Amino acid sequence: MALPPQPWPTGQTEQLEPLVARVLAPNPSPFTYTGTQTYLVGGDDGLAVIDPGPDDADHLAALVTGINARPVVAICCTHTHRDHSPAAAPLAALTGAPVIGCAPLALESDAPRVDAPFDKAYAPDRVLADGEQIHGPGWTLTAIATPGHTSNHLCFALEESRALFTGDHVMGWSTSVVVPPDGDMGDYMASLVKLHERDDRVYYPAHGPQVDNPRQLVRGMAGHRRAREKQIVRLLEERPQTIAAMVPVMYKGVPEFLWPAAAQSVHAHLIELARQGSVTQQEDGQWSIA
């Protein structure tokens, strides 16, 4: 999806509904769309801050302006990629609020990155398990475990308005990048099924526009992944192939600078297909039908 025309509302506090406001961070990229969206949930008596974003002085200043001296009950992170959680520590120092949400996770890898690196400094005061809640004046957030994009990914459900803050698991502008070894396609698909079984009214993702047709979008994303899986199987039925050989065929028309990300998704699909016993990797690095 092409970026929307500028100016973007970077640094502004946008009120989306009575209990939800949004502040856009100044970190646009091919993988973050117009930037990371931080959400302020609550009212005058207390807020939760979801996905505080990058440790950027301008963004922190914009968050302080949006908070507007209101008490902050919790700073919540969906996962620990560095476009989501690094501002948690400085914002906690400014507000005195605890950091509550996903578990710490920081992986080292020599492979070229197609997603944001992990935040090594993330240190939560409390880690939420699936179904655990945070309460504030007039609002309740429930943690929904949604591994796949990362193993520690959480969504947060605002019970009072049936809104779901989906982080990077579901976004309206793009599918989520699933990068092995931590990203797991089987977990990602199971998490999509989990969300499809819910009855959320709206999704507020960390990147891109809000999603007003959540179940329809999730159904389409799952179908897209299944179609990619079938495409991989068809290619391997022709002959054993490497990922590098499959990507130009599978992603014809996609700009080449996005092929490394596509290769990671193909790899994630192959790992899941191998787990199911459908494909196998040969000694020369090629993949084939099992």
From TrEMBL:
SUPFAM superfamilies: Metallo-hydrolase/oxidoreductase (SSF56281). Pfam families: Lactamase_B, WHD_BLACT. GO terms for molecular function: hydrolase activity. Keywords: Hydrolase. InterPro entries: LACTB2_WH, Metallo-B-lactamas, RibonucZ/Hydroxyglut_hydro, Sec-metab_biosynth-thioest, WH-like_DNA-bd_sf. Residues 35-207 form the Metallo-beta-lactamase domain. CDD domains: metallo-hydrolase-like_MBL-fold. The keyword Cytoplasm does not apply. This is MBL fold metallo-hydrolase.
